[in-house]
Amino acid sequence: MLQISNLVKRFGGIVAVNDVSLKINKGEVVGLIGPNGSGKTTLINVVSGFYKPDGGRIIFEGIDITKKEPYERVKLGIARTFQIPRLIGRMTALQNVAYAVIGSRRFKERKMSLSEALSEALYYLDMVGLMRKRDTLCKDLALYELRLLELARALATHPKFIMVDEVMAGLNPAEAENVVKLVRRLREEFDLTIVWVEHVLRVIMRSVERVLVMNEGKLIADGTPREVVKDINVIRAYMGEEVVV
Fold first, then answer.
1. Mean pLDDT on 110-121
2. Could you tell me if 120 and 156 are in contact, meaning their C-beta atoms sit under 8 angstroms apart?
């Protein structure tokens, strides 16, 4: 589904993504881990089009998207959430999701009316458990609710491939567990392919089928959770010790 070849992204003299090549297959849930500053979020930003690469190619379902704009990638079925929620605070939860519906490829394909877009937005809010907050301004939502709203907004673009960036950051254990269950359910119900960036290793290791590990901008490991936690390069770079999974 996604093929990245020799991807490079620089910021001045810093190489944030250094000659990274990888493949994501349709239907996979892949974890992306690594120390702070390893290049994980930069990689997502390049794939989603927020940053332009300085080298390499990105192929999505056979289409070269290396130079495409973010909105063009969304229309191809690529979505993402943000580590720091990027919602419109002066708009309600419903309006934020409806805005995403209107910007999706389905809006024009189906020639949807505004009322139909609002109805579809309500469906996604209900899916993530935010129906009661539909008329609440985003600036008044708690962090957990903002995380859920980011997922609802991403779903509203009708994606095939979604990148989830530290969706559990700042959540308590109960909230984090609810998010894990929700992501699993969304994967099944919407037939999604997911790349999941996370720092809570024990959670991510039992939630994904394959793990990619980055360090200093490079991909240093690619394997099952059990393989990755026993990889000496990963242990040295990130974990410090083996983790039982």
1. 81
2. yes
Residue ranges in the chain assigned as alpha helix (H): 40-48, 70-76, 93-103, 105-109, 114-128, 143-156, 173-190, 201-205, 225-229, 232-234
Report d(CA 151, CA 124) in Å as an integer: 9
Q: What gap in Å lies between CA 110 and CA 223, rounded to an integer? A: 40
pLDDT tens column, 48-74: 999 999 999 999 999 999 999 998 999
Q: Quote the pTM value.
A: 0.86
What is the domain-level CATH number for residue 185?
3.40.50.300
In a shared domain, residues 138 and 229: no
Give the count of beta carbons closer than 10 Å to the beta carbon of residue 93. 28
pLDDT digits (tens, 9 = 90+) for 184-225: 888 888 889 999 998 777 777 878 889 999 999 999 999 998
Question: What range does the domain containing 163 cover?
Answer: 24-77+159-245
Per-residue confidence (pLDDT) for residue 32, from 0 to 100 = 93
Q: Please indicate, yes or no, if residue 35 is contained in any of the structural domains.
A: yes
Shared-domain flag, residues 68 and 96? no
Q: Which residues contact 66 (CB under 8 A, 6 or more apart)?
A: 53, 56, 57, 58
